[in-house]
Amino acid sequence: MIRFAIALAATLLLALPARAGVEIKEVTSPGGITAWLVEEPSIPFVALELRFRGGGSLDAPDKRGATSLMTGLLEEGAGEMDAREFARATERLAASFRYDVSDDAVSISAKFLTETRDEAIALLRESLIAPRFDPDAIDRVRGQMLSSIRSDEKDPRAIAGRVFDAAVYGDHPYGTPLDGTVDSVSTLTRDDLIAAHRGALARDRLHVSAVGDITADELGTLLDRLLGDLPEVGADLPGPAAPRFDGGVEVVDFDTPQSVVQFAQPGIDFDHPDYFAAYILNHILGGGGFESRLMSEIREKRGLTYGIYSYLVDKDQADLWMGSVASSNDRVAEAIEAVRAEWTRARDAGVTAEELDRAKTYLTGSYPLRFDGNGPIARIMVAMQMSGMPIDYIATRNDRVNAVTLEDVNRVARERIDPERLSFVVVGRPQGLSN
Amino acid sequence: MSRLMTLRAVFLALSVTVILALAPGARADDAVTHFTLDNGMAVVVIEDHRAPVAVHMVWYRVGAADEPPGQSGIAHFLEHLMFKGTETLAPGEFSRTVARNGGRDNAFTSYDYTAYFQRIAADRLDLVMGMEADRMVNLRLSPEDVATERDVVIEERNQRTENDPSSLFREQKNAAQYLNHPYGVPIIGWRHEIETLDRETALAFYERFYAPNNAILIVAGDVAPDEVRALAEKHYGPLPPNPDLAPRARPQEPPQLAERRLLFEDARVAQPWVSRSYTAPPRESGAQEKAAALNILAELLGGGTTSYLAEKLQFDEQIAVYTSAFYGGTSLDDTTFSLVVVPAEGVTLQEAEDAMDATLARFLQDGIDSEQLDRVKMQLRAAQIYARDDVERLANRYGRAMTQGLTLADVQAWPDILQSVTEDDILAAAQEVFDRRRAVTGWLAAPSDPAQEEMIQ
To answer: What is a GO molecular function of this protein (chain A) (predicted)?
Structure first.
């Protein structure tokens, strides 16, 4: 059965060139804004993705949460419209605008119908260029953010993330929550939000992708109208973080039946020649859903958890190799022990040729299946630009995976998997664990 | 005010254009084909040829509400065990084979259905269909696999429920909603009953409910109906129907005569909230009008920034940081229409609940804002266009409906029924449903919350 399945999968690679249906054009608007476009006229709408590099990490140390609160206010009144008028106008057009913030970016995801494209773009433009930051809107959205911060203070998953970030990143902006604290958010002023807007939404850090019922010429015109009036230059990005891993276990006491665990060690940058070997290695270790070693050992064989995953984190200013698991308080020590054992086994014994083949077959076979909708393709293309991938990357990606040898993976395992620095944060009442 | 009037005039003109332009060719169900195999298995094919991908799903008309008393969680537990092998597949080999072919697979359980799916290259359909048909009749379970998987499910319950006071609150509140109907029992099961589930209870449930005449096959993506029919006849066609399949008759609720109230305290609650859920009728096959009115009512009352509750409680006054309304219309038996108010800082739960009730009363008195109704209907029309971008979601929509008492024709009629809802329909539905004697009101709070002391006094 195994041999049969692999033979099938080899056919699959031939039958499915990775380029399947995705023809990306680079479009430069008359005003000089660059975007990646896939024309897909069969459904009369466009998915448009904008990313502004920087995000929450642009906050000044005493203004933590400013970029996040600013982003939340973009749709709360702009130009001639207050918050309610803006929302009604969006509904009338049946457009959808989502504004989001992460450590490294402010993201705008827009969907609009061909029929109302011009009106939708005019509306979206107002929110990006001329947000009002009305005092009543600031108070209202600030109240929502404070409520969410207070909830995070009693949520074991959020607590684990916060303690972990502080320990690993220290004074870097990554070391504190991007929504800020009750104190920092309470003292943010309207001027702080105007400054955050001016610093975060600028053309020197912008990436754009569009998929749908629109031509290159139409997109160029649209982009100049939408984004032409943004400032050229924004705020300075933070420097690189210097993640620290002491290899220990930090227990945070919290009265809840199941302990929540995060763990990490140093990661690897996407541009490093060993990235794909590490990526495949992680897939085998803990990235591959039900098939991974961690899932097999800790869930399938021992029933210690509902799910365990590991992943490479490629942030702009730091690279981590992270993982997470949750187990009841009386079993979590056993789960952590098993994670350490798998980590050590991967370093010392590497992976087998069969595991490597399976991982490659999955990774190369599943890759073309991602490109199955305007929204997903637009999100993938903007992420590619943020990671600095070339526009022909999609056609070359499976070759990069296939080029990795068993020797590469096992060398990377020996060099990079580091059980001594693998550090854990545990939130709960774990038995048999202490700091 | 004049600025607002100008804007309105502009946008009213716009929306007329849109309505006209959306009429032709905008329907998502153009690409849907439906047929039934000789053994009673229904088949739905949804075509989308933009990418070489297919989603293959089998939906069983059985869920947590069909469980024998005392065996809560068995439907979901069996769903887990379905990955543990057959006469010809080793435990885990199903998922392993899907992964080796570049696909992914999973399953989910609800009150009225259990569904299994694989997302895979379209030319792998034969392979996954063969394996799915195999496990419909040939499941084999070892006692060791059953015992380990029960631990996994207990950890799943820990993660979803025990570790989250909001989930515990919803579970308790749901139990208060239904005195007699199994919708009051959690899908994942009560912990003490999960602990007693074993191989025999799982296999008995499997034998009773897993059969082609109790299943719906949905294939969506880069596939042709003829090709799906040929494959379905090859793999599912030979499976024998279960002649003893009984009608889905669950114990029904007695008339509710008094409001039920619940105060749930947990030290892990940082943000208290109040929730009210009224018993409401579900979508009925061939008669979905009342459900359509309730669906639009939920949008008008709590569908977002411009909804009535947000307008009154978050904008005109700062009583709430969040409000919402939700109607779970797709359901085999009676369902709920629920409201949530999350109070702003300094507002007690009693004040929040009083404001919610005052707002509801005012809504019924004011009548419907026809412009708001137009906006909601415009968004529903546009949703049909956006829906065509996500064929997996469309497949889910058909699967949920057809396992919960509706037909394919009902699903396809639904958008037009929504558009035909009038202001009077909505008000009549609201008058009928908003009766506190047929509702549960729940407060979620930390023990130290002053609002809670008020309630005790």
So the answer is: metal ion binding
CA distance B332 to B400: 10
Q: Give the model confidence (pLDDT) of A162-200 as tens digits.
A: 999 999 999 999 999 999 999 999 999 999 999 999 999
Give a yes or no: residue B243 inside a domain: no
Size of interface A-B (CB pairs under 8 A): 226
- Tokens encoding A237: 């990005």
**What domain range is B179 assigned to?**
28-235
Determine whether the interchain pair A84/B305 forms a contact, defined as Cβ–Cβ distance below 8 Å. Answer: yes
Report whether A218 contacts A114 (CB < 8 A).
no
Same domain, B175 and B320: no
Q: Is the separation of the CB atoms in A313 and A387 below 8 Å? A: no
Look at residues A156, A174, A173, A122 and name the one whose alpha carbon lies nearest to residue A320: A174
Query: pLDDT tens digit string along A311-354?
Result: 999 999 999 999 999 999 999 999 999 999 999 999 999 999 99
Q: B156 in a domain, yes or no?
A: yes
* Cβ separation B11–A373 shorter than 8 A: no
Is the model's pLDDT at A139 over the cut of 90?
yes
- Whether B377 and chain A come into contact, CB under 8 Å, resolves to no
Are the CB atoms for A205 and A196 separated by under 8 Å?
Answer: no
Report the distance separating Cα A238 and Cα A205, nearest Å: 13
pLDDT tens sequence across B224-271: 999 999 999 999 999 999 999 999 999 999 999 999 999 999 999 999
Taking contacts as CB-CB distances below 8 angstroms, the residues of chain B near A365 are 100-103, 121
Of all residues in chain B, the one with the smallest CA distance to A357 is B100
Q: Contact B154/A290, CB-based, under 8 Å?
A: no
Q: Please list the active-site residues of B.
A: 79
Q: Do B18 and A94 touch (CB under 8 A)?
A: yes
Does B273 fall in a domain? Answer: yes
